[in-house]
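Entry type: protein chain
Record version: 2
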Amino acid sequence: MLLAIDQGTTGTTCLVFDGEGELLGRGYREHRQHFPRPGWVEHDAAELWQSTRAVADEALDEAGMEEAELAAIGIANQRETVCVWDPATGEPLHRAIVWQDRRTARRCDELRQAGYERLVRERTGLVLDPYFSATKIEWLLRNVDGLAQRAREGRAVFGTVDAWLAFKLTGALVTDASNASRTLLCDVHRCVWDEELCELFGVPMRALPEIRPSAGEVGRTATGVPVAGIAGDQQAALFGQACLEPGLGQNTYGTGSFVLLNAGTRRPPAPEGLLTTVAWRIGASTTYALEAAIFVTGAGVQWLRDGLGIIEQASDTEPLAASLSGNDGVYFVPALTGLGSPHWDPYARGTIVGLTRGTGRAHLARAALEAIAYQAVDAIGAMERVGAPPLVELKADGAATVNRWLMQFQADVLGAPVVVPEVAETTALGAAYLAGVGVGALTLDAVGRSWREKDRYEPRMGADERASLLAGWARALERSRAWAG
């Protein structure tokens, strides 16, 4: 049996799977979001750990198992979010700075203007954007009293959420190659911390975790269970969708949406508007992916619920959207934390256009769902413009795949089928599979054979209607650009 920890931006899910990928038990809990200033987003790292322990126990209880009976544990995690803690006591030294946080936008501008974009792009496959971890670490070192000295002396360490959870589970200070590749500090050609980049951002290399393969034992829990699989959530989803060959790809619909395409074992150049990232590293072999990162999709629906109070739960959006025959020209650009791929505009801001006296909450709910689909179209279009093969079908996973209206609309505006797997929570499944591979309980062939289709949505929209909707989206998108610049 395999336990998967999926520590996400808004909550933590733990699932227990058997060797065939059958779900035996689950637990879930949301955690608090902290917004100390506009554009700042933080989590309490201690709460992340406490929630993880609690939902792991819930999943094991539902499966009727004890922790010691597990073959292995796998971790998938929200990427780029930075934790800092004392390695002697295991206590956090500051709240975690979340990937959505925009506080270092000006610093990224300074580095870009100083000519460092090319170095970063070539070494990391990424762009200079506050989304990634390095400027968050730099901010902590510069703004938390005494932290820089502690880091130099080995009394403070930094890591993404996988490293924090692995440390709490096993005491080992480790991260995997996929998460390291999201920091702006890793040379993705060699999967090692880059001395020049660490110097650029002022990060002591001794304060960073050891980079390990994505599959393979990194340590054991107090009950002797190996932690043997680690990957960033989107890479884990790619693995869980069995996109193991070059040219296969998927989209995860979560707090944000992330379109990944398996690019094989030769690192591709990072094209304009897209990212090159490590998909996973197994043994000495590294698999790369092209990625489009969309910052706010499900988080836009969460904002309707928690910020505006116009829905009680996310599922309310489906009947509200379906109650309208069209969008009546209302568009919502959910640039609540800037825009990611392919636009990369940290100064864009959320925008609602087309409001009239007749606009109601159904229009806003529909606009939030439509925005999720439009952003995926933009991402896939960017991939096709740089030579990716035309989309035949889109494998979809994540919580929003239960929204049948959204999945149908996604197929309609893509003009291609959308396919949902039998296990929609493929992020957790991918973490479990990596752990299974890591302890030799699974082979890659077995992972490939395990994928099963549940639902297929064929496009029904005419080309003219599709073009009109996308043109309206493009106009709305332009109005959100550079708003805070």
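Comment: The chain has 16 helices and 23 strands.
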